[in-house]
C-alpha cells in the first residue's frame, strides 16, 4: 500500500517510516524512564526545566472529487490515501487544462480614460486602464502611447508584478505594452484568480508639434476599446479639432477661468488632436447670454407678494462680467442678508418713462461658465380694489440683451388667501389647479421674457367661491340651461347661497341634500339656497373648506314668434368665481346659431374647443368662455332656420369578366348629414341579389354586420350608425347577376343597391342625391343604355369607362357588352339538373334531366363510364343522335319561345352493376355548360340526386352532397323520407315524362351545386345493420347484468358522454342506431326477466369441491338437510365441507 505524502512529494512503500519510528520512540522512552527513576535527586534538581517532547506528526489529509475511481468534476469529495501521482498528472492534463477553450482571450479591456494637460511645448498625459483577466500567469497587455515617454513607474491596483515592455527600436507604431503576473486563487484547487478588475495608471510626456499658428499632438490608445479623452490647456478661446470618428461630449463641469477644455470619446486607435487661437475673432465676438430661471411666487397675505428668482446665466460665446435684469414696475428689490462673494446687485436709477425697474448684476470676475444669481423682490398693494380684490403683476425677470430665456414659475398661496389669475399670454399652465393642505398652488412655464402673470388676491375667511359649467340648448322659441355649480365654502361660512336668475325660470334644483332651494320673497329673480347642517363625516374632517355641488335646470322664452337674434342675460351666482366658466351652446336640429361678440358682454368664443366639438360630429355646437370677474353677463346669438339635410354621394365600380354571368360590384356611399342625426342606413336589396352575396360592409374603416328586413321586392339591408361619427363613408361589396334582356342581344341589365330615402323624407329630412359615378372595369368598351328620356348618362372625358347617372335613378342599369357572350355562341346555361338512379340487386338505370338555355345548334353530352343503351329526349320528344363510345352528339331541332329547354338522357349499366355497399355515381356532363340562375324568383344552379333502392337496403350517405332527408313517423316507427317527392321533382324539371316505382322501394334525395362528380354512395342492408347494432346492444346489456363489476358510475358516465356526443354531432345516425338496436335491447330485457323467474323457482344447491384421499381425514361432519328440516333420524355420514360462496349472483 502506498501513502500520499505532500511534505516529501513522493510515495513511500509498506508501513510508512512514520509508523516504524513510532515504535523506536516508545522503546527509547521506556529506557530513559528506567534510567532516570533511580536518580531521584537529579529529577528534583531539574524540576524547573522542561524536557523535550516527542510528537507524532501525521501527513495532511487530501480530498479530491472522485467519480467511478477517477478524478472528475462534480464528483463527491473523497479522502485520498492510495492515488498514484501518474493518475493525478493525467487528470490535470486531460481534464482540468481542457476545461477552457485554447483561443479564449486572456484579458479584456473594459475602459480607458486619458487626461491630457498642455504644459508649454509638451503635454502630460495620465492614462487609466481597467482590465479584467481571464487567465492566471504572465499576460501581455498593449497600452499604446506611441511617441510618448513614460515618466514614472506604473501604478497597479491590486498590487501584482508588472514589467513595461518598451517599443522596439525602429518601429513607428504599436507603442508600449505591460507584462503582469496574475496570481492563482487559493480558494480552489488549481483554479485561476476570480475575474476582478485590475487598474493600471501610467503617466507619460508627449511632445507637441507646431506648424504656423496650429499646435498638434499624435499618439495612440488600445484599439476596439471605449476611450474617453479629456484635453485641457491653460488658455481660453481655443478652436480644437480632431482626426477620425470621435464624439464630442459636453463637460460635466464648467472649465476653469482662462482654460479651454474638450471631452472626446472614440473606439481607440490613433489619437490626433490640433488647436489654434484666434485672438482677433475673440475680441470682435459679442456676448450671447443664456438664462434659465426658477421663479417662486408666494402670497402669504392678501396685500403682499414676494418673489424669489433664481437665475442661472451663462455665456455661449465669450466671458461676461455683468448684466442687467428688468423686473416688475411695482417690485421692490430686497438686498440679501448675506452678500455673495461671486456677484453684487445694484438697483439702477430710473431715467424718465423710457426705462423700467432695473437691477445691475456685477460679477467678481469674467466667466463663460454658468453663474447662479438669486434676486428677492416684494410687491404690496395696501388699498383693495373692486369687491376687496388686490391686483399684482408678477413673473418679469428679463435679462436685457438675452435671446434665450426659459424657466418655470411656481405659485404658492397661504390657506387664508384666495388667489385667481388671468389667462396669461406667455406663461403656460402646467399643473392643474388644486389644493394641498393649507396652500393653493399652480405651476407655469415660459420660454421668453418679459413674462407677466396677473394675480388677484382676496381674503378667504368670508368668501364663497364657485366653479361653474353650463350647457345651453337653444331652440326657436326658448332656451334651456343646465348649470353645474361647485361651491367651495369656508367652514365658518353660514350665509345663504344666492343666484341672480336675470329672467330665467327654474325647472329643477339638485343640491344632493346640502341645501334647500326657494325663490326669494318679493324678488322672483333670485334663487336662494339655505345651507343645511354638516353631516357627521363632514364635521369630523379637518379640511378648511366644504364642497357643495348644485345642479340647476332653467329655461327662458325668446322674444318674438320667430326671432333671428336673441340676447340672453346670464344668471350670476353671488360668490367669487373660481376660474373661467365654460358654456357649451347646442342648437336644435332645425336652427343654426352664430355667436355675436358685439352684442355680448363678458363672453368670448373658444375657437379651438369649438373646432374639436365640430370635428367630433356635433355640428353647430359652439363653446364659449365667461369672464370670471364680470358683474353682469349677456350672451348674444344669431338664429338661422335650417332644414335638416342629408347629402348622398356614391361611386360604383363594376368588374366584368368574359364567361362569368355576374358582376363584382364595389359600391361606396358618402352620407353627410346637416342638422340631422340618422340612426341607421337602409339600402334596398334587389330581388336577384341574395343578402349573403353582400360580402363586405365597411363604415368609416370599421367592419359592420347588416340585418336583412323583408322579402322579395321589399327586402332591405339595415346598418346601424348610432356609434359612428359623421360623415359616414359606407363601402359595400356584392355580386350582382347579369340578366340578358333578350337571348343573343348582348344587352344586359345590372341591379345595384340604392339608399332607401322614404323613411328619411317622412322625418322631414331633405335627401339630396349627387350623381352616381359608375365605372366599368372590363377588357372591352361598355355602352350604357338610357332607360327613359329623363335617364341619361354622361361620359367623362378623363375615363372612357366612367359615366355619371342621376343619383336616384340607377337601381337598374342597362348596358351593352357583346364581349360577355362568346363569339361561338355555344354556351349552355344549366339552370336545373336532376339525376335519378334506380337500383335493383343486379341492375341500374339512370335518368338525367337538365333545364337549360343555349343558342348552340348542337350539344355534346359525355355519359358516365360504363353507360349503355342511351335514350335522349328534347322538350319531351325523343331525338336521334350519334354516339362515339360514351359521347353523344345531339342536333337541336328547335328552341322554346321562353328560351328555356329541357334535356333528358336515359341510360342503363351492364348486369351486375346493381346495388352495392359502396357505389361511385357521376352525372352526364354537357360541353361548354355553366351554372345558371334559373327562372325569376327561383334559386338556380342546384342539382338533385335521387337514389331509388330496394326496400331491404338503406342509403347511409353521399359524399360531398347535402342530405335532403327528414325523419318522420310512419307505420309505427320513424322512417327517413325525402323532402321532395317524385311528382315535385318532375314539376321542378317541368317534364311530362313520369316514372312510377313500387312503394316498397326506398327513395333518398341529396343536393349540391353543379354536376354530380365522383360521389361515393354508402349503403347497407337493413338486416346487417339490425344484426350489428342489436347484437352490440344485447352483448352490452348482458355484460352489465352478469358482471356486476362493470356496473360502475365511470362506465355509465362514459357511455352517456358518447351517446350524447353522437346524438349532437350525427343526429340522423343516432336515430338510425337507436332503431337498429331495439331488437337487441328487447331480447336482453326478455332474457333478464326469464333468468329472474327461473332463479326464484330453482332450489339452492351447495357447491362441493373434490378432495384427495389426504383431504378425507380432515372432513367435517355436517348435519344433513333432513335433520335441518326437522327429521327425527340423525345421519352419521361424514359430508364434505361446503365451499364458501363468493357472494355474487350467477
Automatic annotation (TrEMBL):
<feature type="transmembrane region" description="Helical">
    <location>
        <begin position="1072"/>
        <end position="1091"/>
    </location>
</feature>
<keyword id="KW-0472">Membrane</keyword>
<feature type="transmembrane region" description="Helical">
    <location>
        <begin position="1024"/>
        <end position="1042"/>
    </location>
</feature>
<feature type="transmembrane region" description="Helical">
    <location>
        <begin position="1049"/>
        <end position="1066"/>
    </location>
</feature>
<protein>
    <submittedName>
        <fullName>Uncharacterized protein</fullName>
    </submittedName>
</protein>
<keyword id="KW-0812">Transmembrane</keyword>
<keyword id="KW-1133">Transmembrane helix</keyword>
<feature type="region of interest" description="Disordered">
    <location>
        <begin position="1108"/>
        <end position="1146"/>
    </location>
</feature>
Amino acid at each position: 500500500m502506498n501513502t500520499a505524502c505532500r511534505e516529501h512529494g513522493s510515495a513511500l512503500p509498506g508501513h510508512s517510516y512514520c509508523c516504524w519510528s513510532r515504535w523506536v520512540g516508545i522503546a527509547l522512552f521506556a529506557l530513559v524512564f528506567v534510567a532516570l527513576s533511580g536518580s531521584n535527586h537529579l529529577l528534583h534538581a531539574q524540576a524547573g526545566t522542561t524536557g523535550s517532547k516527542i510528537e507524532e506528526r501525521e501527513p495532511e489529509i487530501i480530498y479530491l472529487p472522485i467519480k467511478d475511481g477517477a478524478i472528475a468534476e462534480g464528483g463527491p469529495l473523497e479522502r485520498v490515501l492510495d492515488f498514484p501521482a501518474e493518475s493525478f498528472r493525467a487528470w490535470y492534463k486531460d481534464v482540468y487544462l481542457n476545461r477552457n477553450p485554447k483561443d479564449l482571450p486572456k484579458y479584456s479591456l473594459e475602459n480607458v480614460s486619458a487626461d491630457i494637460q498642455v504644459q508649454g511645448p509638451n503635454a502630460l498625459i495620465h492614462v487609466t486602464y481597467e482590465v479584467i483577466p481571464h487567465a492566471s500567469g504572465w499576460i501581455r497587455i498593449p497600452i499604446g502611447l506611441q511617441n510618448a515617454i513614460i515618466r514614472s513607474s506604473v501604478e497597479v491596483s491590486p498590487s501584482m508584478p508588472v514589467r513595461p515592455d518598451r517599443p522596439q527600436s525602429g518601429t513607428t507604431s504599436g507603442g508600449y505594452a505591460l507584462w503582469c503576473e496574475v496570481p492563482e486563487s487559493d480558494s480552489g484547487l488549481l483554479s485561476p484568480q476570480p475575474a476582478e478588475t485590475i487598474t493600471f495608471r501610467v503617466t507619460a510626456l508627449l511632445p507637441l508639434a507646431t506648424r504656423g499658428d496650429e499646435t498638434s499632438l499624435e499618439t495612440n490608445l488600445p484599439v476596439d476599446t471605449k476611450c474617453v479623452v479629456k484635453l485641457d490647456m491653460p488658455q481660453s478661446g481655443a478652436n480644437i479639432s480632431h482626426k477620425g470618428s470621435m464624439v464630442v461630449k459636453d463637460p460635466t463641469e464648467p472649465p476653469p477661468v482662462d482654460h479651454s477644455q474638450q471631452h472626446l470619446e472614440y473606439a481607440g486607435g490613433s489619437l490626433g488632436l490640433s488647436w489654434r487661437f484666434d485672438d482677433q475673432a475673440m475680441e470682435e465676438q459679442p456676448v450671447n447670454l443664456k438664462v434659465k430661471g426658477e421663479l417662486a411666487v408666494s402670497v402669504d397675505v392678501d396685500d403682499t407678494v414676494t418673489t424669489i428668482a433664481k437665475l442661472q446665466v451663462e455665456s455661449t460665446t465669450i466671458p461676461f462680467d455683468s448684466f442687467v435684469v428688468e423686473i416688475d414696475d411695482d417690485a421692490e428689490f430686497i438686498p440679501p442678508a448675506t452678500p455673495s462673494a461671486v456677484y453684487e446687485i445694484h438697483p439702477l436709477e430710473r431715467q424718465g418713462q423710457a426705462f423700467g425697474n432695473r437691477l445691475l448684476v456685477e460679477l467678481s470676475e469674467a466667466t463663460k461658465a454658468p453663474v447662479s444669481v438669486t434676486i428677492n423682490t416684494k410687491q404690496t398693494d395696501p388699498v383693495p380694489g373692486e369687491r376687496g380684490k388686490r391686483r399684482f403683476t408678477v413673473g418679469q425677470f428679463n435679462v436685457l440683451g438675452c435671446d434665450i430665456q426659459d424657466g418655470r414659475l411656481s405659485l404658492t398661496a397661504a390657506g387664508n388667501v384666495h388667489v385667481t389669475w388671468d389667462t396669461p399670454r406667455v406663461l403656460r399652465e402646467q399643473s392643474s389647479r388644486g389644493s394641498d393642505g393649507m396652500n393653493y398652488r399652480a405651476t407655469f412655464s415660459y420660454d421668453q421674457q418679459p413674462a407677466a402673470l396677473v394675480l388677484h388676491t382676496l381674503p378667504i375667511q368670508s368668501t364663497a367661491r364657485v366653479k361653474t359649467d353650463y350647457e345651453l340648448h337653444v331652440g326657436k322659441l326658448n332656451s334651456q340651461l343646465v348649470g353645474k355649480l361647485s361651491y367651495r365654502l369656508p367652514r365658518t361660512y353660514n350665509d345663504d347661497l344666492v343666484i341672480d336668475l336675470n329672467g330665467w325660470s327654474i325647472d329643477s334644483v339638485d343640491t344632493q341634500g346640502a341645501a334647500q332651494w326657494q325663490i326669494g320673497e318679493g324678488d322672483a329673480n333670485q334663487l336662494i339656497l339655505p345651507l343645511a347642517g354638516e353631516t357627521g363625516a363632514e364635521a369630523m374632517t379637518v379640511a378648511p373648506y366644504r364642497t357643495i355641488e348644485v345642479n340647476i335646470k332653467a329655461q327662458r322664452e325668446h322674444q318674438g314668434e320667430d326671432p333671428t337674434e336673441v340676447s340672453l342675460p346670464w344668471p350670476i351666482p353671488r360668490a367669487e368665481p373660481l376660474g373661467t366658466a365654460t358654456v357649451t351652446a347646442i342648437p336644435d336640429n332645425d336652427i343654426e346659431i352664430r355667436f355675436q361678440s358685439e352684442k355680448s358682454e363678458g363672453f368670448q368664443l373658444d375657437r379651438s374647443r369649438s373646432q374639436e366639438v365640430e370635428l367630433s360630429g356635433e355640428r353647430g355646437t359652439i363653446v364659449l368662455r365667461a369672464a370670471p370677474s364680470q358683474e353682469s353677463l349677456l350672451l348674444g346669438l344669431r338664429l338661422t332656420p335650417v332644414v335638416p339635410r342629408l347629402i348622398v354621394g356614391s361611386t360604383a365600380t363594376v368588374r366584368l369578366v368574359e364567361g362569368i354571368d355576374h358582376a363584382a360590384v364595389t359600391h361606396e356611399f358618402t352620407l353627410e348629414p346637416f342638422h340631422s342625426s340618422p340612426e341607421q342606413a337602409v339600402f334596398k336589396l334587389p330581388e336577384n341579389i341574395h343578402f349573403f352575396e353582400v360580402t363586405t360592409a365597411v363604415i368609416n374603416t370599421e367592419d359592420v354586420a347588416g340585418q336583412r328586413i323583408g322579402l322579395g321586392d321589399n327586402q332591405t339591408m339595415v346598418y346601424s350608425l348610432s356609434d359612428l361619427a359623421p360623415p359616414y363613408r359606407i363601402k359595400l361589396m356584392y355580386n350582382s347577376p347579369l340578366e340578358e334582356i333578350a337571348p343573343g342581344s348582348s344587352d344586359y341589365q345590372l341591379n345595384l343597391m340604392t339608399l332607401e330615402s322614404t323613411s328619411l323624407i317622412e322625418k322631414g329630412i331633405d335627401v339630396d342625391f349627387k350623381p352616381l359615378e359608375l365605372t366599368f372595369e372590363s377588357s372591352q368598351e361598355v355602352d350604357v343604355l338610357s332607360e327613359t328620356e329623363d335617364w341619361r348618362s354622361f361620359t367623362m372625358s378623363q375615363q372612357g369607362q366612367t359615366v355619371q347617372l342621376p343619383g336616384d335613378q340607377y337601381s337598374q342599369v342597362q348596358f351593352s357588352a357583346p364581349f360577355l357572350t362568346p363569339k361561338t355562341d355555344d354556351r349552355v346555361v344549366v339552370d336545373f339538373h336532376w339525376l335519378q338512379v334506380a337500383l335493383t340487386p343486379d341492375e341500374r338505370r339512370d335518368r338525367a334531366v337538365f333545364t337549360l338555355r343555349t343558342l348552340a345548334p348542337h350539344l355534346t353530352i359525355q355519359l358516365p363510364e360504363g353507360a349503355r343503351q342511351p335514350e335522349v329526349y328534347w322538350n319531351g320528344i325523343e331525338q336521334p343522335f350519334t354516339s362515339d363510345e360514351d359521347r353523344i352528339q345531339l342536333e337541336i331541332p328547335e328552341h322554346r319561345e321562353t328560351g328555356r329547354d329541357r334535356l333528358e338522357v336515359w341510360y342503363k349499366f351492364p348486369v351486375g352493376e346493381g346495388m352495392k355497399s359502396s357505389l361511385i355515381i357521376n352525372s352526364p356532363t354537357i360541353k361548354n355548360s355553366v351554372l345558371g340562375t334559373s327562372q325569376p324568383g327561383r334559386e338556380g344552379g342546384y342539382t338533385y340526386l335521387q337514389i331509388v333502392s330496394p326496400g331491404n337496403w338503406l342509403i347511409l350517405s353521399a359524399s360531398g352532397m347535402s342530405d335532403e332527408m327528414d325523419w318522420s313517423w310512419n307505420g309505427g316507427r320513424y322512417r327517413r323520407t325525402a323532402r321532395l317527392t317524385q311528382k315535385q321533382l318532375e314539376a321542378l324539371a317541368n317534364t311530362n315524362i313520369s316514372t312510377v316505382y313500387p312503394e316498397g322501394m326506398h327513395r333518398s334525395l341529396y343536393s349540391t351545386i353543379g354536376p354530380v362528380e365522383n360521389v361515393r354512395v354508402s349503403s347497407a342492408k337493413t338486416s346487417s345493420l339490425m344484426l350489428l347494432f342489436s347484437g352490440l346492444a344485447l352483448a352490452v346489456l348482458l355484460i352489465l347484468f352478469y358482471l356486476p363489476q362493470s356496473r360502475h358510475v365511470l362506465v355509465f358516465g362514459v357511455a352517456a358522454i358518447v351517446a350524447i356526443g353522437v346524438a349532437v354531432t350525427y343526429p340522423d345516425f343516432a336515430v338510425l342506431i337507436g332503431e337498429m338496436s331495439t331488437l337487441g335491447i328487447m331480447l336482453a330485457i326478455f332474457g333478464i326477466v326469464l333468468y329472474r323467474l327461473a332463479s326464484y323457482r330453482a332450489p339452492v344447491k351447495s357447491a362441493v369441491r373434490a378432495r384427495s384421499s389426504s383431504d378425507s381425514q380432515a372432513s367435517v361432519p355436517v348435519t344433513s338437510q333432513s335433520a335441518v328440516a326437522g327429521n327425527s333420524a340423525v345421519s352419521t355420514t361424514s359430508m364434505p365441507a361446503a365451499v364458501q360462496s363468493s357472494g355474487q349472483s350467477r
